[in-house]
Amino acid sequence: MNELTTGAAAVQEPDETWNKVLHTQCPFCSVQCKAQIRMETASSGAVTYTVEGVPNAASGGRLCVKGLNAHQHGLHSERLLQPFIRKEGKLEPATWEEALQVIVERFTEGMAAYGSDSIGVYGGGSLTNETAYLLGKFARIGIGTRYIDYNGRFCMSAAASAGSKTFGIDRGLTCRLADIPLARCIILAGTNIAECQPTLMPYFNEAKEKGAFIIVIDPRVTATAKMADLHLQIRPGTDMMLADAMLKIMVDEGWIDERFIRERTNGYEELRSRMQTVDLVETARLCGIEEELIRKAASAYGQAETGIIFTARGVEQQTDGHLAVRAFLNLVLASGKIGREGCGYGAVTGQGNGQGGREHGQKADQLPGYRSIENESDRAYVASVWGVAPEDIPGKGVSAYEMMELMHQGEIRTLFLMGSNPIVSNPNVNLVKEALEKLDFLVVADMLLSETARLADIVLPVTSYLENTGTLTNLEGRVLLREAALPAPGEARQDWRILCDIAERLGKGQLFSYASAEDIFEELRVASKGGAADYYGITYDRLRREEGIYWPCPSTDHPGTPFMFSAAFAHPDRKAVFTSLQNPVTKERVSKDYPLILTNGRVLAHYLTGVQTRRSPALAARSEANFAEIHPDTARRYRVEDGQWIEIESERGSFSVRSRISGNIRKDTIFVPMHWGGVQNVNLATTPALDPFCKMPGFKVAAVRIKQVY
Description:
By secondary structure, the protein is of the alpha/beta class. It has 25 helices and 28 strands.
């Protein structure tokens, strides 16, 4: 049985302390809007909550429906308030001492029998910078394993690797949000801002009011696409071809900045030669877009004085996501639209700390400050900060999904998981479930009992965003401080404190001696100093005074860097790099047996795997169950009625959801949200194929068939 034997009590009984205003920050998307919650207790004991946004530079005081209701999961009756240990198949309440003792015993036994690399550590993109930093340190010198990665691999890895190769550094936005209204042309490729980051919409509305031409590239007619001047309703998986076609047109028509190319870039001639091989007619056919519309998009962007290109998961969650993003970056460089006001590139981060989470050590190949774990000088520097020898830091591990494969193969036998739900979020869920069930020992630290936590041997209760102090880095690269607004409920502990407690019992306490999150941040500052993501000049005191500071910020008197690449790029020769590489990946293709394309995404009311948002009555009521969006013609072909349960099947597996017939989707495509587990989990059918450059799974293209469920 995978249920708790006792239900969690209410988080906290109302008392006189509840008549106050809580100052906090939304835990969800990458905008990281500031908020305040007014809590009032009536004489009857009933508590009412009034939530409103707080004016700040990122969102201007706006909150979306998720932010307005985030407190509902933080104060939910299902919050985990004590540790649980599995006994005779059931998760039973336990003391912290008992839980920590079992963890240390099982870790020690596993390392003795199979080596340190038999233990994997799996993190999350919603963890604070402090916890993300400490989780990497804990894995590498607390345990000594090279196997650490995090769910942000599924969010930003394609854009991150593309930015690093092109610019020499990866930061979500190269410009400011304030530059959006200054752009004369904006391309939104594979991003539905209106539902995923709705508090950013006023920036785009203002740009449109000022005459900006907005292009949306998406296989669906989303709320964002309805705002656009031009919607390119692309066939999923053909984004790179579309970007190449646009560039060919710009080159042929002379809509490029030759001086910028000559003075500030490398690799253009090779790319120009490859452009001669691009067949516009064939590209239009493959993309499912009229050639004239591609020409219109190229003209609008190529001839605009200023412009910004944004990409998100629609482009990036592909087996060629790295090169697809680089193809859009080719457009940016060829037009010279970067390094000046109203210009740039932005990867629209999905998770709350997807940016900061990868900068300080959760990724398999990275050390704090965006240093490379394979670079000897980087290893030596971080080792000196940690007080260990460079050889004590293990080498590069593998990506998040590859960790699941190693678990399935028995190489990773123990997993410590914090702030993630891989049994829902990973592709090829059947394999992932088998892998988790094969483990000798699974520890999950979370605030709620997720689908993955239900499989755990030990579950540890952690604090929510309302009780947790730490910094987060939003999509702009702006570091923000979120301070605890409430005490921890029950026996819940700070996630970083749990890591310190385990490390101490493993005999590494001297390396994990911190009194507060600020103590950890002070070490993070030093560890990042001189790195690409340099936080050294950022302090808690400055963040309290200044609200937010952009990295890189190399000294305490530095103002931060809101605007990137105005004078130089981050490569040693100060130049950006075009790519002329062709797509090496053969994507999954439709066939007679699997004739439709399955793509996935998000809806307004939910976040990631829905563990938090489904505990919010206000949010759950908006989207109670999963669905498949199907074009009316496709529905008629397969005799599917609106609201009918259907089964969607690929070569990997199948799931069941209700149909939602809509003219807003391509006829060859089915769209299914990714927020539900169980039989409604879209990832039962997605492909485990990975991008060879960044190991991003190809979530957005799976060949499927549908049938009615009677």
